[in-house]
Amino acid sequence: MQKDLETKFLLDFETNQNIAHKICRVYTTNQSDHNDLFQEITIQLWKNYPKFRGDAKFSTWMYRVALNTAISLYRKSTRTVKTQDISDFAYKIKSTDYDDTEEIQLKALYKAIHKLNDIDKALIFLYLEDKPYKEISETLGISSVNARVKMNRAKEKLKNILNP
Amino acid sequence: MDLLENYKKAWENQPEENNKFSAVEIYKMAKSRSSSIVKWIFIIGILEFVLLNSLYFVFDMDSAYAEYEKLGLMNFVYCTQILAYIILFYFLGMFYINYKSISTVDSTKKLMKKIVKTRKTVRNYVLFNLGYMALLMFTVMIAEINFNFEDLNIKQILLIILLTFVITLVFLGVLWLFYQLLYGILLKKLYKNHIELAKLDSINS
What we know:
Helix content of chain A: 55-70%
Largest interface: A-B, 71 and 57 residues
Distance between the termini of chain B: 33 Å
Strand content of chain B: under 5%
Number of helices of chain B: 7
Structural class of chain B: mainly alpha
Structural class of chain A: mainly alpha
Number of helices of chain A: 7
Number of strands of chain A: 0
Low-confidence stretches of chain A: 79-94
Largest sheet of chain B: none
Order of helices and strands of chain A: HHHHHHH
Number of strands of chain B: 0
Distance between the termini of chain A: 56 Å
Low-confidence stretches of chain B: none
Oligomer: heterodimer
């Protein structure tokens, strides 16, 4: 049974790992921290996997565990990191069919997100991932009214950073 | 179109991570040891329980007991020690239950609350211990004065009271500062995020 569970977990996580990578990019600014956080997320996912009942989608469940790990369990804080550290951050977005303006936009977006506080980061990340308010409020444990208010504020903050 | 909608499109079109981990690498990571805040709270909490209790082994308790005997405090010491052990086990139990209930599957707010609660259990235990030490010191002081009452003048009595006060304060103060520093460093980020989340909750409630 244990072996089956492990195999299933590895399969689920391997195919969905991009979600965790995106969260790592939002919450860290260099590759070593990225890997560090990714490892902690993996540990937490694995630890909680036996309790994952499959009544929700694996990816939905993963958003919550991974975000919680980044916000509450991971010790390092990105806000103390100097902006120049972002330059050595491996976005690795060199792809032939990739539009140049979007690449620039994406870099600017990450740079702006890094300036937000951890909660706003989560809100913006969930917005960018197109999550419904219901899921956002459940993930963070706040009412959906508050989620909306806070989301609007976070978006305003982000806009001001992007377009001062 | 909204400014953010543009960026959102760029976000949606961002390519997948190049440095993807293989199943073998993920397996290795899953089996590695966590270095999360919760893990540290657990380790530090256990260390605190062990350290505070080993103080009794560090100090020369035989001479202390002889002194208690002389002062007629034996019953008091026995009773408070039994009580202290009951309370120790209560705190250890609470600490373990709180620690175990921490789950990343909970919502962010609930998770943070549980982490803070776990930490508070240890803080309360340390407070209890500091209080207990202070009580013991003052009891011994009063008994000491009482025992030697005929040989002491007012000046000496005041000096003993003052000294006991200062020593107790310094000793407990240093312990408290050390403790604040330790958790301050560990939980600074968590508290900040907790406040941030609570702030938004008070908007409409």
